[in-house]
Design a protein that fits this description.
Helices cover about 35% and strands about 5% of the residues. By secondary structure, it is mainly α. The protein is elongated and about 80 Å long.
Length: about 120
C-alpha cells in the first residue's frame, strides 16, 4: 500500500514587483559605487563612475588622467595632505579584502537596497 499524497499548487509571479526589485539592485549598485568613488579618489574631477554595464552587475570607477596609475601604484611618492588628509598611493587598499573598510560596499549596498525597496 502506497502513502503517496497528491498536491497541486499554483504560483503567481508578481512580475511588476520582481522588476521593481531588479531595478533597485541596479540602482543600489550604482549608488554604492558612487559612495565608494567619493570616499577614495583623486583630488580632481577626473575620477568618474562608468555605469554602462550596471544592468549586468558591473560598475567601474575610472580615473581618466594619464598620471592616475603612476600615483596609485607608487605609494612612496610624497602626497600633499592639505586638502585630503588621507591622500596616498593605493588609496583603494582599505576597501579591498582585509582592509579596514572591506565591508563598506556590502553594507552600503544593503542599506541603499533596503531604503529603495523597503525589504
Amino acid at each position: 500500500m502506497s502513502n503517496l499524497i497528491n498536491v497541486n499548487s499554483v504560483i503567481k509571479l508578481n512580475l511588476p514587483k520582481i522588476r521593481q526589485l531588479t531595478d533597485a539592485q541596479i540602482t543600489a549598485l550604482e549608488h554604492t559605487a558612487e559612495a565608494l568613488r567619493t570616499d577614495g579618489n583623486l583630488q580632481n574631477e577626473s575620477t568618474f563612475l562608468d555605469k554602462s554595464e550596471s544592468k549586468h552587475g558591473k560598475v567601474s570607477i575610472v580615473s581618466s588622467t594619464p598620471y592616475a596609475r603612476r600615483l596609485y601604484f607608487h605609494p612612496e611618492y610624497h602626497f600633499q595632505t592639505g586638502e585630503n588628509p588621507n591622500a596616498r598611493g593605493k588609496w583603494y587598499t582599505d576597501w579591498l579584502p582585509g582592509g579596514k573598510e572591506a565591508d563598506f560596499a556590502a553594507k552600503a549596498f544593503k542599506e541603499i537596497y533596503r531604503r529603495l525597496t523597503g525589504v
